[in-house]
């Protein structure tokens, strides 16, 4: 039985189906766009985290080098102070180059380790 009511109902069903299809397509489109954006943001965040870790490691290495340089600078400043001291220079010249004052005799004694001295002593 085909009358005006059934025709109208059939056309309404067709319109709803087409509207549902359009709504599903829109939802799929927006959903895929959202997934794409979230994926891009995750990739950017991961790259930033990796870069941050690399920079942190480089910072630690640079800090270690800087600490070494600061210690070296302090040592060099101490050496400069010592080299400006005439007594220190005289002491170095006497010990390393065997310079002596007038009337002094310098004896060069061999250096012995405590272990060598113990081995050379006779055991009882």
UniProtKB/TrEMBL annotation:
<dbReference type="InterPro" id="IPR007060">
    <property type="entry name" value="FtsL/DivIC"/>
</dbReference>
<keyword id="KW-1133">Transmembrane helix</keyword>
<dbReference type="Pfam" id="PF04977">
    <property type="entry name" value="DivIC"/>
</dbReference>
<protein>
    <recommendedName>
        <fullName>Cell division protein DivIC</fullName>
    </recommendedName>
</protein>
<dbReference type="InterPro" id="IPR039076">
    <property type="entry name" value="DivIC"/>
</dbReference>
<keyword id="KW-0472">Membrane</keyword>
<keyword id="KW-0812">Transmembrane</keyword>
<feature type="transmembrane region" description="Helical">
    <location>
        <begin position="27"/>
        <end position="46"/>
    </location>
</feature>
């Amino acid at each position: 039985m085909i009358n005006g009511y059934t025709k109208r109902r059939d056309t309404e069903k067709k319109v709803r189906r087409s509207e549902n299809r359009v709504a599903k397509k829109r939802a799929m489109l927006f959903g895929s766009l959202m997934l794409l954006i979230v994926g891009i943001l995750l990739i950017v965040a991961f790259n930033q985290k990796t870069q941050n870790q690399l920079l942190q490691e480089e910072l630690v290495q640079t800090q270690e080098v800087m600490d070494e340089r600061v210690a070296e600078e302090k040592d060099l400043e101490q050496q400069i102070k010592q080299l400006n001291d005439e007594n220190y220079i005289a002491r170095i010249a006497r010990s390393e180059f065997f310079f002596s004052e007038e009337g002094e005799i310098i004896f060069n004694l061999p250096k012995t380790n405590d272990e060598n001295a113990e081995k050379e002593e006779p055991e009882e």
